[in-house]
Specification:
One of its GO terms (molecular function) is 2 iron, 2 sulfur cluster binding. Keywords: Ubiquinone. It comes from Pseudoalteromonas nigrifaciens. By secondary structure, this protein is mainly beta. 8% of the residues lie in helices and 35% in strands. The protein has one domain: Ubiquitin-like (UB roll) (Roll), CATH 3.10.20.30. The radius of gyration is 12 Å and the shape is globular. It starts with a strand and ends with a strand.
Length: 89
């Protein structure tokens, strides 16, 4: 498996752009690898603590989350970008 970039994650708060690589298990993991602090608890999509706003783009879930997710929100712990995304933490 290669770790080539497959998408970019842009943070709305500061316009920082992070490359998401194929070997990364989730958006949360990718952000943490860049020393970006994100609230989380379960890492499984159960609690919703890692909830963020999806400003633009699409994500795919590793597994459908059990926590309630409103339109325009994503759970960082259990999703991967499906193309470039723009998020607000």
């Amino acid at each position: 498996m290669t770790d080539r970039p497959t998408a970019s994650i842009t943070l709305a708060d500061n316009s920082q752009c992070i490359e998401f690589s194929t070997g990364c298990p989730s958006v949360l993991h990718c952000l943490e690898s860049q020393q970006i602090e994100v609230a989380f608890q379960c890492r499984e999509g159960y609690c919703g603590a890692c909830r963020a706003t999806l400003v633009s783009g699409k994500v795919d879930y590793n597994e459908e989350p059990l926590a309630f997710v409103r339109d325009g929100e994503i759970l960082l712990c259990c999703c991967k970008p499906n193309g470039d995304i723009h998020i607000k933490l």
